[in-house]
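At this stage, I put together one protein's amino acid sequence and its backbone structure tokens, which the following lines show:
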Amino acid sequence: MGRADRLELPGEYEVFELCGQTLLLIRDQDKILRLYANTCRHRGSKLLDGKGQCQAISCPFHGWTYALDGSLKFAKTMSENPHFDFSEHSLIEYNLKEVQGFLFAFLGNQPTDLDTQLGDFSELHQPWSLNELITTRREVFEVQCNWKAFLDVFNEYYHLNNVHPTSINNLYCKPEESDKTTGDYASQFGLTTGTGALLEAQQINALPKMANLDEPWSLGARYSWIFPNMTFAAGQEAIWVYEANPITSERCQVRQSICFPKNT
């Protein structure tokens, strides 16, 4: 689900669709990130739209109002009903966990063991201090292809010589063999000529490398794919994160984030 730092203050929220469901990501009054179904428990009305900040979550239909922690605080006339239990009508909340600054959600009833799924992910990416990076730019766009095709193309070098012979093909060296990871993700490292973020003629504009990044990591980029739908490139000066979510079998929504160290 991308990076956690895109919402920093209590009440900041973002509404988005995932797997056909409208979801609400919000920081509560204790600055804890929570993920809710974006629907009122009364009649299922949509609660919020887009992005913003609020002090409480109020349904536009009948005015049922929820605290940022999802608990129901106001429901007109319901307090007069001795059989109505406010605690049984909190927002539907989904399992959400943050690892190395990334958010992972599970919408089912039995969440998977994320520690087992990620395995040695944190150790392998330790040189980049992922949890300390700051998201400086985030874009959402639509691509006219299957979501799996987008991820496949991003994660392979085989097409560069054919498709990009005079541009980025000259920047990327043949990558090393894929690492033998213990989690449900794939990763490999590859050297680059200069920074892989800029074309050859633009290398003079490269930003400083990450201060604590030693060789060989400072000479290339690590490409990682967390199954099923998130991939990122950890480069010399930043990381580029891509989430691909299906819209139809031939269209997908891509969320792109670029993250830098605080001192860049």
Remarks:
- The chain has a mean pLDDT of 89.
